[in-house]
Amino acid sequence: MNELRNDCFALPPGVNWTPVDEALERLRSRLHPVVGVDRAVPLAQLNGRLLASDVYAPRAHPPSSNSAVDGYAFAGPITQVPCVMPLVEGRSAAGAPYTGQVPEGHAIRILTGAVMPTGTDTVVLEEDCEVTDQQLHLNGTLKAGANCRQAGEDIKARERILTAASRLTPTQIAVLASVGVEAVDVYQRLRVGVLSTGDEVKPVGAPVTDWQIYDANHPMLSALVTRLGYQVVDLGHVRDRAEEVQAALERGAAQCDLILTSGGISAGDEDHVSKTLQAHGDISNWRIAIKPGRPLALAMFQGTPVVGLPGNPVAAWVCALRFGTPAMALLAGGEWFEPQGYDLPANFSKRKKPGRSEMLRARIRQGQVEVFGSEGSGRVTGLAWSEGLVELDEGARQIEPGTPVRFIPYSSFGL
Ligand SMILES: Nc1nc2c(c(=O)[nH]1)N[C@H]1C(S)=C(S)[C@@H](COP(=O)(O)OP(=O)(O)OC[C@H]3O[C@@H](n4cnc5c(N)ncnc54)[C@H](O)[C@@H]3O)O[C@H]1N2
Ligand code: MOO
Fold this sequence. Notes:
Elements: H1 20-30, E1 37-42, E2 55-56, E3 66-67, E4 71-74, E5 83-92, E6 107-110, E7 122-125, E8 129-132, E9 135-138, E10 148-149, E11 160-162, H2 170-178, E12 183-187, E13 191-197, E14 201-202, E15 213-214, H3 217-227, E16 231-238, H4 242-255, E17 258-262, H5 272-280, E18 282-287, E19 290-291, E20 295-301, E21 304-309, H6 313-331, E22 342-345, E23 350-351, E24 357-365, E25 368-371, H7 380-385, E26 388-392, E27 398-399, E28 404-409
Parallel strand pairs: 5-6, 13-16, 13-17, 14-15, 17-21, 19-24
Antiparallel strand pairs: 1-12, 2-11, 3-10, 4-6, 4-7, 5-9, 8-9, 18-20, 20-21, 22-28, 23-27, 24-25, 24-26, 26-28
This protein binds ligand LQZAQKY5 and molybdate ion.
GO molecular function: metal ion binding; molybdopterin molybdotransferase activity
Pfam family, one: MoeA_C
EC number: 2.10.1.1
């Protein structure tokens, strides 16, 4: 794989306040897959993995024409009723096909999933006919091919069934199994380092005093990474000391394809992530027109991209979803994506300054979008309460109950 360029995140001269769409487009254009390929990974290990090459069907599905119902098979159509046909001896069952030929004008007992015997192409449901004295009585017409599943109607042999860069789902794994694919090539899991920073931040379990807070971002971001199917590299927590931040980033660069940091990225005296990246890497501080999450640092550190998320948990979550998830997908060999949302009426009022897009914690109840009562960027309860985000674009000013707003469920980010 090609390495990323050191200055890949640099902003064009004079740009300092970037609309969300532009920021996303810029990210998209500068990233590419950085992971290797695991060859011939068996079906049982494919859930959530990213396909590295297109897959073609080694055989058709279904492989033979077969009956969709329990009933009687014959050569269709039936256009004139009542119709009486003699039944041949024997039957065709799933796993025990009838090997003889059914003569013209005759019918045969058939069960669901059984191969259509030679001489038949149509099946009548057993509820829609009568059998007396080895004779089949039909009282309704039937089209030729009724209740019969044609060989290859779902998948033809050698047809492309899945395309490279798809994230394999349980249902796609079923497609692979249906045509007998035992193993496929997938991208190696993206290794994502998670690092928390801040003198006031302490890992859960450590002793704390009143001026210290527990680290909420590390477990949240680690769970996000795992949920997306990537591998978490725990870079732990460091204090606001340039040398500690640098050492952690060095460990990360040696072990990871991407590093997610939180905190210490704005321009404060103790914002050592941005300072360290400035001194030893190639940083671009993107002031994105989004709330929450105005400061977002994108940097290259010793060849590894670093996404510097804001420290406030809500801003860290929103930025990790909005910018991190498509970026990670692209680096991991998947496709860049624009999370799909839908417009639903708001059940709230809100006044908004134009010029910045806003992402609110939201959920749907009774077909309407409700938002969390507080927009405070440190309110973790609103994160847990929410089932998605409302995205109000840069131009929005006033939302009233009934105004359509764009709701993006968390599932649209791959969760
Ligand atoms: N003069 C300015 N000050 C600030 C600005 C600004 O534009 N000008 N932006 C504000 C916004 S918005 C945010 S967001 C923060 C981002 O700053 P940092 O990324 O440097 O974050 P910190 O200052 O380190 O932390 C912010 C906040 O979050 C808490 N935090 C940090 N890490 C964690 C964690 N792992 N778990 C839970 N909470 C965490 C931290 O204690 C702070 O309260 O800057 C504003 N200031
Ligand atoms: O990113 Mo800050 O948390 O917008 O509030």
